[in-house]
Amino acid sequence: MLLLHWDKAINNETLKMGAFDISKRDQAIKRLESRRKSGELGFMDVSLSREKTAQIKETVSYIQKHGKDFIVLGIGGSSLGGKTMISALTNKFSNKGTKVTFIDNVDPDYFFELLNVLDLSSTVFNVISKSGSTAETMAQFLVIYKMLCDKLGKKEAVSRIILTTDPEKGALRPLVRSMGFNSFEVPQNIGGRFSVLTDVGLLPAAVAGIDIEGLVKGAQDIVKTGLNNNIDENSVLKYSLIKHNHYIKGRTCSVIMPYSTKLADFSAWYVQLWAESLGKKGLGQTPIPATGATDQHSQLQLFMEGPKDKFITFIGIEKTSTPVELPKFDVDVEAFSYLSGHTMHELIRAEMLSTEKALSENGVPSVRIEIPELDAYHLGALFMFFEMAVALTGEFLEINAFDQPGVELSKKYTYKMMGRKGY
Ligand code: PA5
Fold first, then answer.
1. Average pLDDT per consecutive 10 residues, the chain (423 residues; last block may be shorter)
2. What is the DSSP string of 232-291?
3. Helical packing angle, 135-152 and 408-417, nearest 10°
4. Distance from the CA of 404 to the center of ligand 1, in angstroms?
5. Does ligand 1 have an atom closer than 6 angstroms to the CB of 137?
6. How far is the centre of ligand 1, averaged over its atoms, from the C-alpha of 193 (Å)?
7. What is d(CA 298, CA 90) in angstroms, rounded to the nearest whole number?
8. pLDDT score for 351
9. Does 79 contact ligand 1 (Cβ within 6 A)?
10. Are residues 68 and 23 in the same domain?
11. What is the pLDDT of residue 230?
């Protein structure tokens, strides 16, 4: 389960709300509860039915039979969660099994490089778009479908593309019906950036051999206490309050800093969640992705001595089955011999705790979230922890965390420039 630590700079006063009044806190939880009752918060009802497990299993067998490569085409919430799972829970350097790759842009050079090396006869694609009208994803779809048709014929092309989309609406669902694509669903009451634990993330995860039951169970365990208004029993509430109180006091930048390269993509997922959910009406914290210890040699100087507007969330991993021992060297070298006899795991943890202490002494507040180990269960828990925290923070700010009106205008200009009718 998740453990929460906060630094000494966050005293009990801050925790007990100092800046943010208790009745407002309770009202915020009530508003969230009523959103849930009205069916708006589908992401909290995360589950894996027997039928769903069977559908995923059957599709995974098909993919593994036909695909050396499984390419996921999608953007934003249709990509970042799945990508995070693969980098956190699989071996990036291994060539075993089906390789899962995410393409989330329309950079022609990058796309061309992929197409140039891909063996289409052993590739399966997953086009993920809830709306079916996202220009980037649809452009990728057009290219891939044509290439598959040219190489394998129309019937085989259709069977090599799995569409994950809205169960009823959108531009892709009619194609599922008329052309017979295999399809998965993005539930209507779950927005893109909250959809990681639906078919959107679970199918790619299952293809990579990740324990999807574990992911779901971890998330469900967070939901159990996530709306409890007793701060001692609800770490989501505690975290959200600490952070919000610091926001009110000028900590307008939210740094997320897992001490793990395997969680670097988790930071990217968090950035979208925090930015797109809360950046509204002149409010919101600017999320800053960082990776420990790498960014100690890049951004830490700014966090330490730059503008006093940062609040840091560390994520630590308590234990690992592969700690990597640091051996003795041939000769004694004062500059690094002290490392011998320790492990790499000890070193990365020492770096995290030291950075936390140094920041605290410099008046930079932080919270440390610890997971006992990096596995499917705890990654699922982390996803749900932050999804619930952002939902709660949205209520504290009295904004709707579930829409994204600010991204529409640039989309409309793109449609116009590319000649879409009516724009
Ligand atoms: O969180 C969101 O709603 C967005 O980031 C979407 O996921 C993103 O715009 C992609 O949308 P779609 O799945 O409709 O292609």
1. 71 58 86 94 96 97 93 98 98 94 98 95 97 97 98 97 97 98 97 98 98 97 91 90 92 98 98 98 97 98 98 97 97 97 98 96 95 97 97 95 94 94 93
2. TT-HHHHHHHHHHHHHHTT--EEEEEES-GGGHHHHHHHHHHHHHHH--TT--PEEEE--
3. 50
4. 9
5. yes
6. 7
7. 27
8. 98
9. no
10. no
11. 86
Confirm if 267 and 312 have CB atoms less than 8 A apart.
Answer: no
DSSP state of 343: B
Q: Is 411 a catalytic residue?
A: yes
- Residue from 84, 134, 138, 195 whose mutation best tests the ligand 1 pocket (most atoms within 8 A of CB): 134
Query: Which residue, 243, 270, 219, 231, is CA-closest to 393?
Result: 243
What one-letter code names the amino acid at 360? S
The CB of 192 under 6 Å from ligand 1? The reply is yes
Domain span including residue 238: 3-36+214-405
- Closest residue (by CA) to atom 12 of ligand 1? 129
- Looking at the structure, tell me whether residues 13 and 125 fall in a common domain: no
Q: What is the pLDDT of residue 296?
A: 98
Q: Is the CB of 193 under 6 A from ligand 1?
A: yes
Atom of ligand 1 nearest to the CA of 165: 13
> The domain that contains 376 carries what CATH number?
3.40.50.10490
Give the tokens for residue 385: 């922890």
User: If you take atom 3 of ligand 1, which residue's CA is the nearest one?
Assistant: 192
If one counts the domains in the chain, the total is 2
Spatial contact of 40 and 394, defined as CB atoms under 8 Å apart? no
Q: Does 218 lie in the same domain as 206?
A: no
Residue 125 located in a structural domain = yes
Start-to-end C-alpha separation, the chain: 49
pTM summary value: 0.96
How many of the other CB atoms lie within 10 Å of CB of 115? 14
Residue 242 forms part of a structural domain: yes
Strand order in the sheet with 253-258: 3-6, 366-371, 310-317, 253-258, 286-289
8, 92, 297, 421: which one is catalytic?
A: 297
Measured in angstroms, how far is the CA atom of residue 23 from the centroid of ligand 1? 34
pLDDT at residue 13, rounded to an integer: 57
Catalytic residue among 136, 276, 387, 395: 276
Q: What integer pLDDT is reported at residue 400 of this predicted model?
A: 95
Q: 259 with 392, same domain?
A: yes
Task: Tell me if residue 297 is catalytic.
Answer: yes
Instruction: Assess whether 220 and 363 both reside in one domain.
Output: yes
